[in-house]
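Write out the bound-state structure for iron/sulfur cluster.
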Amino acid sequence: METLAHLGLIARYGADWFRSAGTAGQPGSALYTVHVPGREVRVVEAPFGIPLGRLLPLAALPADRCGLAETARVLRYLALQSAGQCGPCRNGLPRIAAAVRTLAEPGPQSTLRDDVARWSGLAEGRGTCHHPDGTARLVRGALTTFAAQLDAHAHGLCTATDATPVLPVPQDRS
Ligand code: SF4
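---
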């Protein structure tokens, strides 16, 4: 629907108008889902390339929550959202989701951190669609962004003080 809406506006106002927003490599705008705990989920339209800092005040994960636990919840959802017809979805995503669930708990990690990074690389580019690719990018981002939390978890610690889930992942609503 987002694409169809863009096409209608491009037909009306022209390609140059569309390209006036966004970046050279990714012109136009996108819809971003932002969620502030305790408030309604909102969808906002913003140009591609918008500095994250301009969206973060609307969407940032509260400092008292665990980014790894939130990532694990999203990955579980993504692992369940395929027909399992391609190798990465049949084998890779469930394994990655389970491993990140383990990493989200404070305790020994063994080789799991490296394993998750390696499995994500193996899943990328091997599906019929890009579902595994997007999931792999999420995993890579989480391993980098939450590296300090991963270190803390490896030492049996967690910086989060509130375990209440934040992101509105559908499985939590069932
Ligand atoms: S890669 Fe795409 S088409 Fe293949 S099982 Fe996964 S979601 Fe389905």
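---
The beta strands are 29-34, 42-47.
The domain at 67-154 is CATH 1.20.1440.230 (de novo design (two linked rop proteins)).
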